[in-house]
Design brief:
Largest sheet: 5 strands, antiparallel
Distance between the termini: 14 Å
Radius of gyration: 38 Å
CATH class of the domain at 3-88: Mainly Alpha
Number of strands: 9
CATH topology of the domain at 3-88: 434 Repressor (Amino-terminal Domain)
Strand order of the largest sheet: 3-2-5-8-9
Oligomer: single chain
Strand content: 15-25%
CATH architecture of the domain at 3-88: Orthogonal Bundle
Order of helices and strands: HHHHHHHEEEEEEEEE
Structural class: alpha+beta
Amino acid sequence: MSIGSELTAARERADMTIEQLSAATRIRTGLLVAMEADDFSRCGGTFYARGHIRAIARVVKADPAPLLATFDAEHAVEEDKSRREERASLKGPTLHPARPRWAVVVGAILIGLMGWGMVRLFTLPSDVEANAAKTASTPVVTPVIPKATPTPTVKPTKRKATKPPVPAKTKLTLTAKGDGSYVTVRDKKGKRLFQGLLGPGTSQTITATGDLRVSAGVPANLSITVNNHTHSTKLYRFTAHPNGTLTKPE
């Protein structure tokens, strides 16, 4: 499990909501929802992210050591990669101006002219051979045109009526009401498609193949439409299906 999933599971075992955990740790609800979605970019750096993880673990009575070890291992790899990219960007390609080599060019031209003269000298035909070539008759070849074969007539086949298939894509529209909510949407493979705060009156539409997994900070402040089916839910995490239904994730 990821760090965000571990934090969510620990909070649920402690029977606490996002708002209760925010009051106990003095961490904003939007930031708590982002951390449970494995988004630590809003913490202001790894130092503050470690402090938030330690504070949450203390309130929900979880061991912070394995969470911090996983966080350090993941973010050490990201920092090393960013440093390598910075060093590579500082090294620019070195361009050397091309210097024309006129002696080589002139020598190649002279060799070509000499070769052409030698070929003309030894391959020039005599006057007799030239006259014989002029008087020689050229045979006329009449091409044989094959007869066209008739194209068989293909009778149209009747197609049986088939039932419309179940839509393979899920179109999800989230409309904020009240004070809005922080939302994270992922596809069936876990790829993040949207993450951010939906303010009052704003909406966001996401379309993808298969199921969509949604995490919401305040689900009561959202109006949810899945393939033209409107829903409302109190689940902080739910799955939207192509048939227009919502379910609680396993």
